Amino acid sequence: MRHARDGAAAAMSAASRILVARGKNEPQEMENPEVAWGQRARDGVWVPTRDGQRIHLGIDVAAADTVAQILRPSLRVFVGVDVDTDIVAQTTAGGVRLLTVIHGPDAPSEFRFMVSLADGLTLESMPSGGYDVVHLRYGATVGRLYNPWASDSMFRQVKADYTLEGSAVTMRVQHTDAYYPVVADPHYER
User: Fold this and answer.
1) How far is CA 42 from CA 23, 57, 64, 83, 164, in A?
2) pLDDT value of position 21
3) How far is CA 51 from the centre of its chain?
4) What is the rounded distance in angstroms from the CA atom of residue 167 to the CA atom of residue 185?
5) pTM exceeds cut of 0.70
6) Per-residue pLDDT at 5
7) E strands, 31-152, where?
8) Which of 26, 45, 68, 84 is a plausible cystine mate for 103, CB 3.0–4.6 Å?
9) In b/e form, how buried is each residue of 147-161, taking b as 16+ CB within 10 angstroms?
10) pLDDT(146) > 80
């Protein structure tokens, strides 16, 4: 088992390399007082919607009691949430990113995120492969879970997509022929 500090550094290094290669169009990490993180992976995060409500994104992993290593208020790492898997969690101006770092072929290919919506909100599938959080009464989009992307250490695209089962959004990452580590990016913005 990796030491937690070494694991956080390895996860951060992998995520940083991929984000730098992707360029400046990626949302920037920044403090956001409207985002509230739980202490453990299973506690997840509460994020704002455009209409002032909040939704909860829970991280449903094998080691759900993994405590976050808080590197700064807008950045935390959940080390060893599953076999060969870490999550680098960033706060952005309008939401969060849950950069899933897959270190080897024994890592799972599916990652579940439990979504709890405020009353009057629903998830609506989008043609892009993401999900809009829609206000039922007004039909307005008040948040968005963007279609995930994934990239391996050679900066090659790895197929990633979502499925929705009840209140669980499952990200599937087909990393079998990839060069590790692979980084996949579930990203929510209001």
Assistant:
1) 31, 9, 5, 16, 18
2) 81
3) 22
4) 19
5) yes
6) 54
7) 36-37, 45-48, 54-60, 69-72, 75-82, 85-91, 95-102, 110-116, 121-125, 131-135, 141-151
8) 84
9) bbbbbbeeeeebebe
10) yes
